[in-house]
Amino acid sequence: MHTDSTVDIGLVLPDLLGTYGDVGNATVLHKRLVWRGFAARVVPVAFGEPVPDSCDVYVIGGGEDSAQTLAVRHLRAHPGLQRAAARGAVILGVCAGLQILGESFTGADTVEHAGLGLLDLTSTPGGRRAIGEVLVQPDAVLAGAGEAPLAGLGEAAITGFENHQGRTRLGPSARPLGRVLAGTGNGDGTEGAVQGRIIATYLHGPVLPRNPHLADLLIEWVVGERPGPLELTVVGQLRDERLRACQRAASGSGQRASGASAARPQRGVSS
Ligand SMILES: NC(=O)CC[C@H](N)C(=O)O
């Protein structure tokens, strides 16, 4: 159980990394904590400010290549996030955030930029921009032989919206968040990355309002116990609507990812 009185949610560089409402991920964590009776606050960290290492959980969103390059320079110059990760802080990275948390990324400038080295992954530009709805089957269901399922995430599908040029290759220390059933994700049939208490994904939406089970997994890691259920009709409606849109994309178009997952049966896809 978390012992401090207040859960601090670090909102990392929302002025640079906040495309598609990604800052809403911090709002969702805050609300879902407060509704369960936890004291919580969002701690925005603006460009130019030092990065505190004291937060319990950090969210870092997406952005265009130029903003992403500025952001990584800032985060390397003020390594509070890296110190927090070393003591086990929970981190959610989205799109540019995913790439920044990795070992390196190459953007439109064709320069390889060093990342923060918190995730064993590298990102390089793909052939065409990946844009559209994404449907992901969590590895909790489709863990490979010898792989332990990602405890706490359950079988429910993850949905989101992607818009990125980068493709990401995971190293042996990271595992994917799931398998792509519609969309592109990492570009090899997998989506996102999990390593220790860090989860990263290409999914905007933002991802946490659309996937409350993912929000609650992060909260479980932060507070040290499984949070109780929240019955929120509007959240269920949003989830159902976005799942239907993703399933249409999965069954219809040429949006499917290249890679093994596209051929996998859609067993266990649930909300
Ligand atoms: N949406 C994003 O965060 C984009 C990330 C990165 N600039 C890319 O295009 O791959």
Automatic annotation (TrEMBL):
<comment type="subunit">
    <text>Forms a heterodimer with MurT.</text>
</comment>
<dbReference type="GO" id="GO:0008360">
    <property type="term" value="P:regulation of cell shape"/>
</dbReference>
<dbReference type="InterPro" id="IPR029062">
    <property type="entry name" value="Class_I_gatase-like"/>
</dbReference>
<dbReference type="GO" id="GO:0071555">
    <property type="term" value="P:cell wall organization"/>
</dbReference>
<keyword id="KW-0133">Cell shape</keyword>
<dbReference type="GO" id="GO:0004359">
    <property type="term" value="F:glutaminase activity"/>
</dbReference>
<feature type="region of interest" description="Disordered">
    <location>
        <begin position="247"/>
        <end position="271"/>
    </location>
</feature>
<keyword id="KW-0315">Glutamine amidotransferase</keyword>
<feature type="active site" description="Nucleophile">
    <location>
        <position position="95"/>
    </location>
</feature>
<keyword id="KW-0378">Hydrolase</keyword>
<protein>
    <recommendedName>
        <fullName>Lipid II isoglutaminyl synthase (glutamine-hydrolyzing) subunit GatD</fullName>
        <ecNumber>6.3.5.13</ecNumber>
        <ecNumber>3.5.1.2</ecNumber>
    </recommendedName>
</protein>
<comment type="similarity">
    <text>Belongs to the CobB/CobQ family. GatD subfamily.</text>
</comment>
<dbReference type="Pfam" id="PF07685">
    <property type="entry name" value="GATase_3"/>
</dbReference>
<dbReference type="InterPro" id="IPR033949">
    <property type="entry name" value="CobQ_GATase1"/>
</dbReference>
<keyword id="KW-0573">Peptidoglycan synthesis</keyword>
<comment type="function">
    <text>The lipid II isoglutaminyl synthase complex catalyzes the formation of alpha-D-isoglutamine in the cell wall lipid II stem peptide. The GatD subunit catalyzes the hydrolysis of glutamine to glutamate and ammonia. The resulting ammonia molecule is channeled to the active site of MurT.</text>
</comment>
<feature type="binding site">
    <location>
        <position position="129"/>
    </location>
    <ligand>
        <name>substrate</name>
    </ligand>
</feature>
<dbReference type="GO" id="GO:0009236">
    <property type="term" value="P:cobalamin biosynthetic process"/>
</dbReference>
<dbReference type="GO" id="GO:0140282">
    <property type="term" value="F:carbon-nitrogen ligase activity on lipid II"/>
</dbReference>
<dbReference type="GO" id="GO:0009252">
    <property type="term" value="P:peptidoglycan biosynthetic process"/>
</dbReference>
<feature type="domain" description="CobB/CobQ-like glutamine amidotransferase">
    <location>
        <begin position="9"/>
        <end position="211"/>
    </location>
</feature>
<dbReference type="InterPro" id="IPR043702">
    <property type="entry name" value="Lipid_II_synth_GatD"/>
</dbReference>
<feature type="active site">
    <location>
        <position position="204"/>
    </location>
</feature>
<dbReference type="InterPro" id="IPR011698">
    <property type="entry name" value="GATase_3"/>
</dbReference>
<keyword id="KW-0436">Ligase</keyword>
<keyword id="KW-0961">Cell wall biogenesis/degradation</keyword>
<comment type="pathway">
    <text>Cell wall biogenesis; peptidoglycan biosynthesis.</text>
</comment>
